[in-house]
Amino acid sequence: MSVSESIPSIELRSLDELWFQVAGTVCNLTCHHCFISCSPHNRSFEFLTYEQVNEALEQSIEFGVREYYFTGGEPFLNGDLVRMVERALQFGPVTVLTNGTVLKPEWLNQLTAAQESAVYSLELRVSIDGPTADINDPVRGEGTFYRAMKGVSLLCKHGFLPIITMTQTWNDAENHLILAQFREVLKSHGCERPRLKVLPRLKLGAEENRTEGYQPTERITESMMRDFDRNQLLCHHSRIVTNRGVYVCPILLESSDAKLGDTLEEATCDFPLGHGACHTCYQYGAICTNSTLMATDQAASEIPQ
Amino acid sequence: MKLAVFGGLYSNYLALAAAITDARKRGADQLYCLGDMGAFGPHPDRVFPLLHEHHVQCVQGNYDDSIGNELNDCQCGYTDPRDNYFAQLSYDYTLANTNSENKVWLQGLPVELRAEIHGRRILFCHGSPRRTNEFLWESTTSTAFLNRLADEHQADLMIGTHSGIHWQRSLAQGRLYVNVGVLGRPENDGTTNVWYTMISLTENQSPQIEFIPVEYDYQRLADEMRAEKLPDEFVETVLTGWWTTCLEILPAKERLRGQF
Description:
The complex is a heterodimer.
Chain A: E1 9-10, E2 17-21, H1 50-63, E3 67-71, H2 81-88, E4 94-98, H3 105-117, E5 122-127, H4 133-140, H5 144-157, E6 163-167, H6 175-188, E7 195-199, H7 206-210, H8 222-225, E8 238-242, E9 245-247, E10 259-261, E11 271-272, H9 276-284
Parallel strand pairs in A: 2-3, 2-8, 3-4, 4-5, 5-6, 6-7
Antiparallel strand pairs in A: 1-11, 8-9, 9-10
Helix pairs in contact in A: 1-2
Chain B: E1 2-6, H1 13-25, E2 30-33, H2 47-53, E3 57-58, H3 62-68, H4 81-96, H5 100-107, E4 113-117, E5 120-124, H6 143-152, E6 157-160, E7 167-170, E8 176-179, E9 194-200, E10 208-214, H7 218-227, H8 232-240, H9 252-257
Parallel strand pairs in B: 1-2, 2-3, 5-6, 6-8
Antiparallel strand pairs in B: 1-9, 4-5, 7-8, 9-10
Helix pairs in contact in B: 3-5, 7-8
């Protein structure tokens, strides 16, 4: 059997989540583990316009989309982001993935008002890769821990309950300690109800240079898909709109086969799960969605804090 | 035609008895329960005689599937370790205290019920029509998504529970989604009452939905939970009306309304 024959494909069960690559690959930071190598100068994907987002939102109704995600790059670098979120909240719940370093009070005032008048939730997810500058800054850049925590404080002051997402760069055994420490740090920054989500490293983009890429053995096989809950894979129920068309998922933007079409309709086709990142998604389960905290090994005799 | 619909019972047999009495007083023609008979509360076997005696038509929840088939966990769909820790305590207690006759009954429950009343196709389910343990929160469920479910499952009125907080949404073509809330624990609003839903159907009118608060002897429930050595965190919820566990699954809007 050839290698290509052994790659399982997955169908789009239904379009539950629609993502928007609103800031393209443009970010004010240059994180060393970024799976699509975003930076101030990476123009591989450009900003989406308000009109492009609005058009996709209107098309999304016929697909019965349940919720919307805005990502980048840094979404708040897109000057129309607040307007886009206000508009999207008329269609469904919205999540914005931000690095928290460029937030302005006037934007947050507008977003607070938008959420209060909407039926739907607005979630702000802030990427901070550990509870201290010593852990975070080597990965995300000098001074970014301090700046992101200021952003978190600002969000809390505006009445949001941000979800802090951290890419795990420590051993599993340290998880418990790191999470407990992070909760304390967040509380001391005015975040009374810390919500945390741990993400696995994705070994592509900049991360491939920082540590290592995927081994050829880190692939999903046909046999692994037997009796597997396909809902665990984001591509089973999501697509992402970019300025270059509709792609399979936010992780694989730079892969040659990840573009599925120019329209949502064209992008409903099957996708071959041939990437190392697919293996990570398989292992950890729908890593891009909002559920807080992945299951970690906790001793059953103690109450996890 | 009046349908009284109960959501998750979580072993709260005192609230179930109060809700049945209330529904009968209000003239309910048929009683339904949408599953999750056990969890959280004490003495899981005490809800079953009430369900049988009053001919309550029941749907299987994720908890019922787990207890009925003696699985390892409740399949509640939590992702947070603290939430899972408390869910497991509750599950282990419920599994150990449900007799085998009731387990067999739970195992045989249908995952959905359908009825057609005055030309309206009604679908009773636990979580969502497509998955028993899918959470449908008001603030994270778009109308477009509910319309799609109504199309795919060919229903004019979709009725579910699972999330623990009641709400409703009007859909295209006069259709409707209703989350009936739960009888098992309060709604994270600082009041001790629990909720069920009365649905009135008439020939030519839209269905009338009434969410009904149920007062019951919550002090007694708390005392029995303590006597059974169930976690203090659960007892606190019964006494205060604020959720203390299973919080991480809440979307921002619902979480902000609570105290923790």
